[in-house]
Specification:
mainly beta; 1 helix
């Protein structure tokens, strides 16, 4: 085979291997979406019992433990649960100097009151 024929074949093979340089590279894939924000965690996991009131109420908290704290000088009160997706045990009667009452709450809406004082009511929304 003459040398010019080899040069033509080599030129064709080289041109075929280069591909089409005028087409752009495909765009990179989009980045993954950001993770969702965490659920709101609410205000406080401690409720103060004093002056014939619960504070704060209503409140929104994360699921888990909540503490009721009898403030200095508090007279006898209790936490008695009225509604909710679970049935926590009430606090029993407590006054200033009593140990805090701690209970665990699952997600849902709760209402509670003090059986000694009319109008001493509270409400809690618990996020999952």
């Amino acid at each position: 085979m003459p040398m010019s024929r080899w040069l033509v074949i080599a030129a064709i093979v080289a041109a075929a291997g280069c591909g089409n340089s005028s087409s752009p590279n495909p765009p990179p894939p989009p980045p993954p979406p950001p993770p969702p924000p965490p659920p709101p965690q609410g205000h406080s996991t401690t409720i103060t019992v004093a002056n014939n009131s619960f504070s704060p109420t209503p409140d929104t908290i994360p699921a888990g433990n909540i503490t009721f704290h009898w403030s200095a000088g508090a007279i006898t009160h209790n936490v008695t649960w009225l509604t909710g997706p679970s049935s926590p045990t009430g606090s029993g009667d407590r006054a200033d100097g009593s140990a805090d009452y701690v209970t665990a709450l699952v997600a849902g809406n709760y209402t509670y009151h003090c059986t000694h004082h009319v109008g001493m009511d509270g409400a809690i929304h618990v996020n999952p």
